[in-house]
Design goal:
homodimer; alpha/beta; Nucleotidyltransferase, domain 5; 2 domains; five-stranded mixed sheet; four-stranded mixed sheet
Amino acid sequence: MLSGNNIKELFLGIDGGGSKCKAIVMNKDNEILGTGIAGPGNPLHGFEQATNSIALSAKLALEDANLAYVDLSELTAGVGLAGVNLPVLFKQMQAWQHPFKQIFLATDLLIACLGAHQGEDGAVMISGTGSCGFSYIDGQQFMIGAHGFPHGDKGSGAWFGLQAAKQVLLSIDGIVESSIMNDVLLTKLGCKDDTALVEVIAGKTATYYAQLANLVFDAAEKGDKVALEIVKEGAEYINSIARTLGKRNPPRISMIGGLTPRLKPWLAKDIQAQLSEPLSAPEVGSVLFARSELAKQELVKS
Amino acid sequence: MLSGNNIKELFLGIDGGGSKCKAIVMNKDNEILGTGIAGPGNPLHGFEQATNSIALSAKLALEDANLAYVDLSELTAGVGLAGVNLPVLFKQMQAWQHPFKQIFLATDLLIACLGAHQGEDGAVMISGTGSCGFSYIDGQQFMIGAHGFPHGDKGSGAWFGLQAAKQVLLSIDGIVESSIMNDVLLTKLGCKDDTALVEVIAGKTATYYAQLANLVFDAAEKGDKVALEIVKEGAEYINSIARTLGKRNPPRISMIGGLTPRLKPWLAKDIQAQLSEPLSAPEVGSVLFARSELAKQELVKS
């Protein structure tokens, strides 16, 4: 059990995204004591929901650490959130009457990068539902991509899914050659024909399309020409992001996000060779960020 | 003034789309007596609104023809509507307790094709907000494309606008070469930089993107490489539609839709050479459809 003294040195790390909010509780030796997950933590989809998710995931992480008796006001929190790159949302979150001892707010990209490189300088390419590149070197943040769907986020899960749907529709019309993706996609979505497919996919979001990304990689790995073209085009965009980040000479570069296992083998060999495994998760990056900011505060005070 | 007898031989033609509903009143000699325009006439966006728009545009057309004293119940109506290719909407519109003498319901594509070829067999390529091909030969209808945005409708206004936004965002990130479209697009949308652009275009509809199509053609005509690639790719898709329609040997083929004046000069020379000017508007096609269906009814009765 932690003594009263140690409890005062507990840190909370939050990674709040569009679909879920992850929390981690760590001690001053950066040991993970417990984790928790709650609903959406992106303030873009609502301040109330985001702040509720952050508090709930924190309580769950404390329970998981057998520290349910610890009050949230004992925790120093690093909070990484999608959306707070927008000034209006950053201000709104800063004004939150939060239940923690102290709070340090960062973007989801910064905490992901800090997590991947254990708080040291570095860069990350991210391909999940969306896509982007980010580096944090000598205190300077740099971002590329992250433009959103359907106008951006090339090489992301949503982009791969949309390309699949486009090519299947074109091939049903005889405009491009047919693909083994045709039957797979129609079966997966329970559609008899292109009319049914068009009805099913009309108005769908990035999250929906991202669920279709795997079938493109499955087909490409079987040598399907149409799928291979899509995978090569998506990989080439992530190569471009890596080369742009590389110009800033990051000490380490990692690839993260849900599509990484499928997409990484398709990147250029020289880029694959440069990649380092991410050292820890974004929510750990949030703790490292909080500790770093706390150290700066104490330096100013002393 | 029309005599009582002539009034009984008045025809109404309706072209009901997603943004407006056009009406035309014609006599038995196919002379245009008056026209009217009301709000959205596509039942996909609401039955009440569509039927109100149809009735209102019809009254406006009668007023325009100085026939305000004529009751709608005197009119034989041909009604072409976007959306009624979906069985559920066709049934809903068929069940309408309409105010006309008689109503004949058709898709917007059929009446556009009948209008373009004065009721005779033929084919049309359409590029407006969306894109598709359609033919009507020996009583057989055939459709290609018309898949919707953003997964389909290649070569349409919405597709050109989206491609412009994509390329501008990629070039701001240094992934593709810069284009004269960059400044034009940012200025047109009142944006200072890519962050502002992403905020402005997030979640926008096909209609919004279609308003950006002209700037792609403007840039291409000035020799801009990025714009030229987009225009060539869009034109190639419409070429493919034309070649697919051509296999059915339509006696005439026309290109219609709002983007026609900009896109037609970029089509393959052999396809441009095959194109005939559309002879009349879709709402005239609706009247021709109604008269043709009426003639079939009278044949059955006699």
